[in-house]
Amino acid sequence: MFVAVSIFEVANDMAEEVKQAFVSRPHLVDKANGFLEMKVLSPQENLNEIWVTTFWDDESNYQNWYKNHMKESHQGIPKGLKLVPGSTKVRFFQQVTS
C-alpha cells in the first residue's frame, strides 16, 4: 500500500470552511484506479492545520491521478483561502503492517 499525506495550515480563519469543503467534496478521487481511502484530520493542538491522507494500492496509481486529475479535485477550495507560508508539506509512505 502507498500513502500520501498532505499537510497545510490555514492562515485566515477559514479552517472550518476548508473542513466543510472536504465533508461536501464531490468524491472525484474515489473512482480513481487504485484509490482505497481518504482521511482528513486536524490535530487537536492546532485546529487550523489539516492533514489529508490518501491510501492507494500502489504509487503508480497515485502518480497517475496526481498528474491527470489534481486540478479538478481542488475546485472546491473556498475562495479567499490563505495558507501559512511554509506550512505545506507532502510526505509519502509505504505501509509496513496494519
TrEMBL record:
InterPro entries tied to this protein: ABM_dom (IPR007138), Dimeric_a/b-barrel (IPR011008)
PROSITE patterns reported for this sequence: ABM
EC category name: oxidoreductase
Highest taxon of the lineage: Bacteria
Residues in ABM domain copies: 2-90
EC number(s) per entry: 1.14.-.-
Alphabetized UniProt keyword annotations: Monooxygenase, Oxidoreductase
One GO MF term attached to the UniProt entry: monooxygenase activity
Residues annotated as signal peptide: none
Name listed for the protein in its UniProt record: Antibiotic biosynthesis monooxygenase family protein
Species of origin: Pontibacter locisalis
Species lineage: Bacteria, Pseudomonadati, Bacteroidota, Cytophagia, Cytophagales
